[in-house]
Amino acid sequence: MDDVRIALVTGANKGIGFETARGLAAAGLTVLLGARDEARGAAASGEIGAVPVRLDVTDAASVAAAVTRVTDEFGRLDVLVNNAGVLTGWGRPADLTAADLRTSYEVNVFGVVTVTRAFLPLLRRSAGGRIVNVSSGLGSLTLLAAPDAGIPVMSYSSAKAALNGVTLAYAADLRDTPVTVVSVDPGLCATDLNHRTGTRTAADGAAIVVRAALGDSTGRFIGESGEVPW
Ligand SMILES: NC(=O)c1ccc[n+]([C@@H]2O[C@H](COP(=O)([O-])OP(=O)(O)OC[C@H]3O[C@@H](n4cnc5c(N)ncnc54)[C@H](OP(=O)(O)O)[C@@H]3O)[C@@H](O)[C@H]2O)c1
């Protein structure tokens, strides 16, 4: 088997995903840079020597085409970083409708399930497959339940909490296989997602994701200072 590990990062044309792709490429992995827009994916890949893969996590046909391509060209996958995410559906929780939450769940939860299920056969061909779900401290039920917690963006927090549930479910199901599954909290980073209001850089956040992807950190919900409470 070829020694160079192969990693796929979804939503990697910008932000934390792009910096994660850059970090994994710098660590010597072959990086497949997932992007839903072909031109943006090609431009970002060119910057870091990655392989662009068109991938819209909400579009099953695009995910299936990506799996076919990775199967034909690489034959396996070692690392899957489910990074693609959106922050949509603002408003006070009591005012929101189910429709206001739908886009957030489509990308942040169902997209991860679609991509993970589709790529799992390729991850099972790895000597030690790794799935990293880019979650958020805002999805920590423990922190949301704290007496001094503020009013969350329900569409986002509850989707990331659901994503953490997805992480734990996969981890349990794959317990007896070489495939490991973790959630990561990159911390509040200045990206387009939050109109650049974060206090850290995308590269700061990506460093945590990269460590988790390489298996260099311990725990199952990994943040800057160790384990984040579920
Ligand atoms: N920034 C933070 O403070 C922070 C904190 C905690 C967690 N996170 C998480 O970190 C991840 C990356 O966020 P970011 O801050 O880097 O945001 P960002 O700069 O807005 O990047 C989001 C990425 O996701 C992609 N994307 C959105 N919908 C997609 C879809 N349907 N299919 C494929 N790709 C899609 C975007 O593609 P386009 O360019 O085509 O829109 C973009 O590449 C997200 O999961 C986010 O929830 C961020």
TrEMBL record:
Gene3D superfamilies in the record: NAD(P)-binding Rossmann-like Domain (3.40.50.720)
InterPro entries xref list: NAD(P)-bd_dom_sf, Sc_DH/Rdtase_CS, SDR_fam
Entry keywords, A to Z: NADP, Oxidoreductase
GO molecular function, one term: oxidoreductase activity
Pfam families the record matches: adh_short
Coiled coil stretches, renumbered: none
Similarity remark: Belongs to the short-chain dehydrogenases/reductases (SDR) family.
PANTHER family: (+)-NEOMENTHOL DEHYDROGENASE (PTHR43490), SHORT-CHAIN DEHYDROGENASE_REDUCTASE (PTHR43490:SF99)
Record's protein name: NAD(P)-dependent dehydrogenase (Short-subunit alcohol dehydrogenase family)
Protein's organism: Catenuloplanes niger
